[in-house]
């Protein structure tokens, strides 16, 4: 039996996350985790799942066995060296599978023959024939791989492939084991094999490309363009060293560039993000932020020109929809590169409708904040706009503040405030920087209000988060609370105190008393 698709342009997706992916140092998965990944792979429509290397350990055997019992909609494959004991163990593990495959391999390159196998050409050749024949005695779905094929002499590779086909292999895999090939070379290799090897048209040629030079996906696609119809790949590109071709990338390249890659796969691409998150979680391998398709930034835009384009038409800066890979929506991330269009849109989303002047003021403050702060969250923008709106008519304003703090006191503050439009500066000391600031305010704005509460909390996470400070003052039985937010806790403290004084002025006015200042 082969898994030859009826449609000549259909590419078989062979996922080896559980075998080659698990070979990434540190990516070992538990039995239960492997079953969880299997369920997602099956649901996603993966054609062949390489579930493990049964001879490697009792645990690997058990998981291939269980996956074979469980995953009836995909071909379940186990790996085996060119040893009868490996092949026999593999056959036992895949036995319960509705469609089971034995994948046997041997190193064919001069380096692998001489150093790894310590066998000459003829001995390796004989092992090819013997191993495929043995595997065929168990199943009619046998894959043979020429490990390090891309560094193997072409004539010798042709001989081995021909022998493997003759012995009954139904899939011929041409691994770029060390990620050495370029796309042109790799495509030409597949083409050469298909043209030269007798009966090449009776089998499926497969790619298995490693990413040592970052060419795994390009090489896999070059293989397909030259007649390969199976791609071996892993979720998130997990795998030995720099990893394998990433499943999500080959699948989305084929889907997105139908014009130059006129092929198809059976993958439900809306499950790609889910699969990526699961594999990342169980393997404890984080996905790089800018990873194609499934990286956190793959559908995020921060720069103003891109955000403007996205708001006008998403196709300006996105070649696929986030929904097509299972991401809820594009995100316009607010940061120092954002422009007014995106800022206005963000405010609208957050429920603010500011006039043009207020919007411009808020935008300026946002830019200043973004220059100082790595991540600007919605809460930061809310705090900033609330502050702007709440304090637009204030009579007292903090203009600038410099504080000297540290172990060698006394701490001091130099504060400039605008009081009814007139700027005044004082310097004060205190028992700590906050006390020094509050003393400066008291010098500039004489009052008898008592400080009842001083509270600080972070608006968002991180050491560069904005601090939100609350200050409660009581005067003649009247209590007011002022709040302010700023990435500098001391500036937020000064502003919060001044905010409560502004409220006190309003309270006094409404009660017919004199203004503070
Ligand atoms: C390119 C790839 O990804 S290939 C797959 C790589 N994956 C793994 O190796 C993970 C699982 N491996 C294991 O658990 C172990 O290596 C085992 C169980 C397979 C073998 O363990 P050990 O018997 O202790 O051998 P060890 O790993 O030290 O050495 C590998 C042996 O396999 C031989 N070998 C390597 N590839 C093949 C092959 N395709 N066919 C036959 N023999 C092979 C080597 O020559 C070496 O043999 P030697 O002991 O006669 O020198
Ligand atoms: C076993 C083979 C397919 C392999 O993993 C490789 O050559 O990289």
From TrEMBL:
It comes from the Bacteria. Mn(2+) binds at residues 20, 208, 210, 244. Its EC number is 2.3.3.13. One of its GO terms (biological process) is L-leucine biosynthetic process. Gene3D superfamilies: 1.10.238.260, 3.30.160.270, Aldolase class I (3.20.20.70). Pathway: Amino-acid biosynthesis; L-leucine biosynthesis; L-leucine from 3-methyl-2-oxobutanoate: step 1/4. Residues 11-273 form the Pyruvate carboxyltransferase domain. Catalyzes the condensation of the acetyl group of acetyl-CoA with 3-methyl-2-oxobutanoate (2-ketoisovalerate) to form 3-carboxy-3-hydroxy-4-methylpentanoate (2-isopropylmalate). Belongs to the alpha-IPM synthase/homocitrate synthase family. LeuA type 1 subfamily. This is 2-isopropylmalate synthase. It comes from Terrihabitans soli. The lineage of its organism: Bacteria, Pseudomonadati, Pseudomonadota, Alphaproteobacteria, Hyphomicrobiales. The gene is leuA.
């Amino acid at each position: 039996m082969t898994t030859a698709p009826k449609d000549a342009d259909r590419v078989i997706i062979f996922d080896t996350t559980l075998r080659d992916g698990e070979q990434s140092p540190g990516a070992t998965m538990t039995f239960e985790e492997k079953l969880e990944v299997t369920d997602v792979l099956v649901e996603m429509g993966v054609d062949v799942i390489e579930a493990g290397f049964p001879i490697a350990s009792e645990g690997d055997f058990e998981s291939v066995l269980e996956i074979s019992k469980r995953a009836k909609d995909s071909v379940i494959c186990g790996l085996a060296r060119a040893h009868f004991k490996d092949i026999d163990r593999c056959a036992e593990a895949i036995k319960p599978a509705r469609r089971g495959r034995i994948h046997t391999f041997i190193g064919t390159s001069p380096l692998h023959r001489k150093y790894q196998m310590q066998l000459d050409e003829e001995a390796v050749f004989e092992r090819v024939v013997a191993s495929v024949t043995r595997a065929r005695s168990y199943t009619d779905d046998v894959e043979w791989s020429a490990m390090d094929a891309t560094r193997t002499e072409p004539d010798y590779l042709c001989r081995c492939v021909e022998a493997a086909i003759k012995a009954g292999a139904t899939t011929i895999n041409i691994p770029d084991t060390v990620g050495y090939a370029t796309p042109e070379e790799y495509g030409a290799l597949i083409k050469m094999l298909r043209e030269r090897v007798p009966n090449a048209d009776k089998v499926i040629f497969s790619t298995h490309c490693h990413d040592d030079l970052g060419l795994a996906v390009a090489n896999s696609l070059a293989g397909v363009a030259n007649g390969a119809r199976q791609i071996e790949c892993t979720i998130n590109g997990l795998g030995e060293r720099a990893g394998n071709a990433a499943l999500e990338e080959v699948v989305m390249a084929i889907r997105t560039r139908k014009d130059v890659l006129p092929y198809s796969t059976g993958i439900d691409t809306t499950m790609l993000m889910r699969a990526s998150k699961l594999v990342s979680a169980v393997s404890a391998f984080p996905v790089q932020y800018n990873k194609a398709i499934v990286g956190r930034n793959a559908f995020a835009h921060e720069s103003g020109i891109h955000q403007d384009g996205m708001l006008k038409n998403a196709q300006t800066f996105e070649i696929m929809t986030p929904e097509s890979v299972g991401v809820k929506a594009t995100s316009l991330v607010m940061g120092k590169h954002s422009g007014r269009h995106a800022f206005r849109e963000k405010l609208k989303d957050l429920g603010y409708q500011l006039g043009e002047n207020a919007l411009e003021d808020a935008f300026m403050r946002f830019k200043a904040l973004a220059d100082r702060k790595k991540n600007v969250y919605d809460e930061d923008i809310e705090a900033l706009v609330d502050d702007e709106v709440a304090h637009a008519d204030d009579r007292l304003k903090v203009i600038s503040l410099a504080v000297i703090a540290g172990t060698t006191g006394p701490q001091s503050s130099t504060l400039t405030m605008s009081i009814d439009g007139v700027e005044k500066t004082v310097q004060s000391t205190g028992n700590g920087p906050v006390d020094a600031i509050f003393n400066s305010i008291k010098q500039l704005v004489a009052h008898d209000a008592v400080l009842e509460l001083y509270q600080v909390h972070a608006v968002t996470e991180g050491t560069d988060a904005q601090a939100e400070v609350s200050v409660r003052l009581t005067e003649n039985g009247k209590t007011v609370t002022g709040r302010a937010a700023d990435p500098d806790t001391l500036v937020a403290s000064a502003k919060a105190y001044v905010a409560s004084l502004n409220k006190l002025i309003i309270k006094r006015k409404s009660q017919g008393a004199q203004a503070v200042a």
